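Protocol step 6 of 9: fold each sequence in the batch and record its structure tokens directly after the sequence line. For illustration, a two-sequence batch is reproduced in full.

Sequence one:
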Amino acid sequence: MPSQSDDKRQAAREVIDILHEISTLLNTALDRTDLSLCVSLIENGVNPDALATIIKDMRKEATAAPRLTMNEDGLGE
């Protein structure tokens, strides 16, 4: 017989699976780990709108940042 903590873990996995399906349909590019972290932050009081804004801003910065290329020595150029 599964323990209560096993039931809670299973329920949490199912929630993340459902959120991942929704996330995929909405093309958010968030994986299960990202979603799990977002849920945890929101459960701990982070404003969901602020979190979404930060994620969007970080993605913009990441795509705008110049890409480092590696030379033969494995050093960035």
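Sequence two, same batch, same settings:
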Amino acid sequence: MAKTEARKASKEHLSSSAHQSEKLSFTWAMERCFTLLFQGLVYPQIWEDPVVDMKGLELTSGKSVMTISSGGCNALSYLSADPEFVHAVDLNDHHINLLKLKRDGLRYFPNYQTYYRFFGSAQCAGNIRAFDRHVRDHLDIDCRHYWQQRDILLRRRVSLFERNIYRFGLLGRFISVGRWGAYLLGVRLSEMLEMPNREAQLEFFEREISPVFDHWAVRRVTAARASLFGLGIPPAQYESLAREGDGSMADVLRIRLRKLFGDFALQDNYFAMQALTHSYGVGPENSLPPYLQLEHYHALKSKAERLSVSHRTYSDELTERPEHTFDCYLLLDAQDWMSNKQLDHLWSQIIRTSRPGARVLFRTADKESLLPGRLDDDLLARFAYLKDLSADLTKQDRAAVYGGVHVYELKP
């Protein structure tokens, strides 16, 4: 009963965030389609750069972190900085159970090789057997039931880790459709993997990929707000993105993909590898999220119990926390969905629960911070906007999806 009530509450909170339009309008219908899609698995891998996060927050030993789970990679990666604790929330039940599995897999798989085969490769025969032997019985009952559930072909959900989970979820399927569309237009994205350096990658992009965004079919498809639901982008956020391209979403996508494939060498950017191959590649030289890196494995394994998870909204979690609890707050792009009233409530709770010098990091679809003009002036005045740092972090963010990374610091 409690789990049913939690799911019902989560749906209501998601609806209140994503539904901003008048009833029976076209945008109203699009918002409800998005909400329906968002109730499934969206992000097998979170699409924010944890290295940028830790740098922006000055995350060091002994600090406490409040974050949104999404695919769970970053919440685990923050443990590499030796924080006092990390707490992750999410409205999506699939994300919650994925993070719990990643955390408990870290605790109970016997070695790095088993852990990497399961979560890094995620398509090795024997992963289900390893799950049954080492992890299944340590999961809480709801999480265990989730991964034991069977689909129409009677496959357990955990079998996703033998079928490459990165091909699934809303994002995984969106990437597959994008690669298929590029193939139909004559672009062989696999050739990007043969480029020897960043300069060659950029040249390939300009020659082969960039012209795709001038094709009439691409411009027509991307003009529909539903076209980016696969990236987890609701209609309101679509409008913010489109402004960057003077109303053309195709031009915005060209800009973002140019950064993804042209600003960083492939061997240094696991986001680009996921976009090209649904994988992290093979070989020790390939880029990995911190939680999957061998150098962090033993430290993270010993600190896994410092990560806690709850299935609720960010604001609701903060409301029940005492004063002076957190040093670091990560909001991902959640504020792009929020009303001004929701923003005011969220930031009032951040102020109440923050420790001296606390930092807040978030991303926006648009280049500029959304807070000026929307957040109550008295609340905003409590924080200093770290403009230069924010600009540097935006350039360094390998995920390349967002227009801006923004860092605010609580004033003394």
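Proceed to step 7 once all outputs are recorded. Observation for sequence two: The radius of gyration is 21 Å.
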